[in-house]
């Protein structure tokens, strides 16, 4: 019987919800490109309910306990003596979400003698030391595509929010004011601007598709080029590198994984080549941008705005400079954890567990590391140093 250790974010401050703003979710059977949404044999939750917090338990408890397995759910993941550290040594499976990552470092993997499977309930497994997972024969899987469109929608929202100066204008209303000039002196139209994405994978391409109707000029860079028909359909300009692309852009959105090639990419040097007053949206991973260089670029006007939902570490400390830097539109890490996304990644987590617990192969699309090497989707999107 397996012990499953699941690290989830805390419940709402006023308690686990007893009612919701809406009654249902639109059914999503397939993702762009044809991949099917998760296909577990069954689920024990109501789509649209809060599943990603501790009391939601990703809807897994009944399923696991009925089959004799043990489920431990906690939000206590950091610091000496955390529940996560205490429960890890005999856990067979660890489940964590990027929004509240249980960092599976090399040291922790070394202490987790039974660990065989690390599931990311969502997308982005960089909180797992993939080199260590490979060395210890741990399988890593994530619920590919489950929240890609959720994030793309967040990118579009943040792009418009920054360019149109939405958040400061909303604050004027909250403060009881009506000074139009205060609201509009930093407000522009997106129309006609040059928008570029660093990476055009599932999220990056979805962002391009969603922004195309705004009559912008679209740019991208990626390790592989998109099919010619997609470039023509969207009027895309391809640039071989990020450094080639960013000087042309009014808005840059980062949609690449964090790995050794992208860590620290947006530092002083690259930011200095961007147009004065450019906007940078990063919903990928915080460490792709240099924390203090972003703060400096906003203060000296190189960037007109920065937004995103990814921080390092998570949760961000109260004195993190991105909380107080000017002209930012940050949220906590929420873009991929809408109630809509939760229903999909909870179902995908269940699908992965059903496969693994019965000795069936996990969907190739979900695999990041398997059999001591990068595998499946991971072989395409991730890099390791080994
Ligand atoms: P995909 O794997 O579909 O796409 C990633 C793309 O990045 C691929 O096209 C890949 O290229 C490209 N790429 C990798 N390295 C580089 C590089 N150095 N320069 C340019 N392009 C590069 O991933 P997704 O679109 O689904 O997700 C992207 C990232 O977004 C995730 O890794 C994750 O960190 C983050 N994310 C954030 C979420 C949130 O809640 N904020 C939720 C989900 C994901 P190639 O195909 O050529 O290898």
From TrEMBL:
Enzyme class: oxidoreductase
Primary localization: cytoplasm
EC number from the UniProt entry: 1.17.1.9
Sequence ranges assigned to domain D-isomer specific 2-hydroxyacid dehydrogenase catalytic in this UniProt record: 63-363
Residues annotated as binding substrate: 123, 147
Pfam families: 2-Hacid_dh, 2-Hacid_dh_C
Parts of the chain that traverse the membrane: none
Site feature Important for catalytic activity, where: 285, 333
Location of the protein in the cell: Cytoplasm
Residue ranges occupied by any D-isomer specific 2-hydroxyacid dehydrogenase NAD-binding domain in the UniProt entry: 156-335
Binding site for NAD(+): 148, 202-203, 222, 257-261, 283, 309, 333-336, 381
Reaction(s) catalysed by this chain's protein: formate + NAD(+) = CO2 + NADH
Keyword NAD carried by entry: yes
Function per UniProt: Catalyzes the NAD(+)-dependent oxidation of formate to carbon dioxide. Formate oxidation is the final step in the methanol oxidation pathway in methylotrophic microorganisms. Has a role in the detoxification of exogenous formate in non-methylotrophic organisms.
Quaternary structure (record): Homodimer.
Family, similarity comment: Belongs to the D-isomer specific 2-hydroxyacid dehydrogenase family. FDH subfamily.
Identification of the protein by name: Formate dehydrogenase
């Amino acid at each position: 019987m397996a012990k499953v250790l699941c690290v989830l974010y805390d419940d709402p401050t006023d308690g686990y919800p007893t009612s919701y703003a809406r009654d249902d979710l639109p059914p999503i059977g397939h993702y762009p490109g044809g991949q099917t949404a998760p296909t577990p044999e069954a689920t024990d939750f109501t789509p649209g309910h809060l599943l990603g917090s501790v009391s939601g338990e990703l809807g897994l408890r009944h399923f696991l306990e009925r089959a004799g397995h043990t489920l431990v759910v906690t939000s206590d993941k950091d610091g000496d003596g955390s529940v996560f550290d205490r429960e890890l040594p005999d856990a067979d499976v660890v489940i964590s979400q990027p929004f509240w990552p249980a960092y599976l470092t090399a040291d922790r993997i070394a202490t987790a003698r039974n660990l065989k499977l690390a599931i990311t309930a969502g997308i982005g497994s960089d909180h797992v030391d993939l080199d260590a997972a490979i060395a210890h024969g741990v399988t890593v899987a994530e619920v590919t595509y489950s929240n890609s469109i959720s994030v793309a929608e967040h990118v579009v929202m943040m792009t418009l929010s920054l360019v149109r100066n939405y958040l400061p204008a909303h604050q004027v209303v909250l403060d009881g004011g009506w000074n139009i000039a205060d609201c509009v002196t930093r407000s522009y139209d997106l129309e006609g601007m040059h928008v570029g994405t660093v990476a055009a994978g599932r999220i990056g391409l979805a962002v391009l598709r969603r922004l195309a109707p705004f009559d912008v000029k679209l740019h991208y860079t990626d390790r592989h080029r998109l099919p010619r028909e997609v470039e023509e359909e969207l009027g895309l300009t391809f640039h071989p590198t990020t450094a080639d692309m960013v000087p042309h852009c009014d808005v840059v959105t980062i949609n690449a994984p964090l790995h050794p090639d992208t860590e620290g990419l947006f530092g002083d040097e690259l930011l200095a080549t961007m147009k004065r007053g450019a906007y940078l949206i990063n919903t990928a991973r915080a460490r792709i941008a240099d924390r203090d260089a972003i703060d400096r670029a906003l203060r000296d006007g190189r960037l007109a705005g920065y937004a995103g939902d990814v921080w390092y570490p998570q949760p961000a400390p109260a004195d993190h400079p991105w909380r107080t830097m000017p002209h930012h539109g940050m949220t906590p890490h929420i873009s991929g954890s809408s109630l809509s996304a939760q229903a999909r990644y909870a179902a995908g987590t269940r699908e992965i567990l059903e496969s693994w617990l019965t000795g069936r192969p996990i969907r190739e699309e979900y695999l990041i590391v398997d059999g001591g090497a990068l595998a499946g989707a991971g072989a395409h999107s991730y890099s390791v140093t080994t």
